[in-house]
Design a protein that fits this description.
Layout lengths: L10 H9 L3 H7 L5 H17 L1 H7 L22 E6 L6 H5 L11 E4 L1 H6 L7 E6 L2 E9 L7 E5 H4 L5 E6 L1
Parallel strand pairs: 1-5, 2-4
Antiparallel strand pairs: 1-6, 2-5, 3-4, 3-6
Length: 172
């Protein structure tokens, strides 16, 4: 496969590639920052599947002195960062905000997190949690979503304020 060549796959072709990921690589799947990073990963997996493990060694990037951002200090309370997914509810915006009769349509002040992330942080459904990143913090009620991928939280856009794409969640 040539670099920069178009790669077209259907979802049923991607699933076996994703399930072939193991351990550390599977955890990194949650950390992809854009659609392009995902497509690059798929292109890599297709090439490895076609040409074998020897090709994986050839494609492995050279180790550099600075391998990304500096690790966070190992505080006792720090349990890892989560990726923030903002969403805009169907009934939202100025039209809903201005009409008193439609206030029930506004999203609740809550965050959704996976069952494994909630257990790790000892957060139960209905608990109040603080979501924080780079000096900004928001206090929201927790909701456990068993369909949500580990390492990700969802917050309605109007409640996410100025939070960055990676956040820390702590039970209050």
């Amino acid at each position: 496969m040539l670099p920069g060549a178009d790669l077209r796959l259907r979802s049923f072709q991607i699933r076996p590639l994703i399930t072939s990921l193991q351990g550390e690589h599977l955890l990194r799947l949650n950390q992809l920052g854009s659609r392009q990073e995902f497509l690059d990963l798929v292109r890599y997996l297709v090439e490895i599947a076609a040409k074998g493990p020897g090709r994986a060694k050839e494609l492995r990037p050279a180790q550099t002195a600075s391998a990304g951002p500096a690790p966070r200090p190992a505080d006792d309370h720090f349990l890892g960062e989560l990726r923030l997914v903002r969403y805009r509810p169907l009934f939202s915006g100025p039209q809903v905000e201005r009409v008193a009769e439609l206030q029930f349509q506004r999203p609740r002040q809550e965050l959704e997190l996976s069952a494994s992330d909630a257990a790790k942080r000892q957060i139960a459904a209905g608990d109040t949690a603080v979501v924080r990143s780079d000096g900004t913090s928001v206090e929201l009620r927790a909701r456990i979503n068993r369909r949500l991928m580990a390492g990700v939280i969802r917050i309605a856009d109007e409640h996410a304020a100025d939070l960055h794409p990676t956040v820390e969640v702590v039970k209050t």
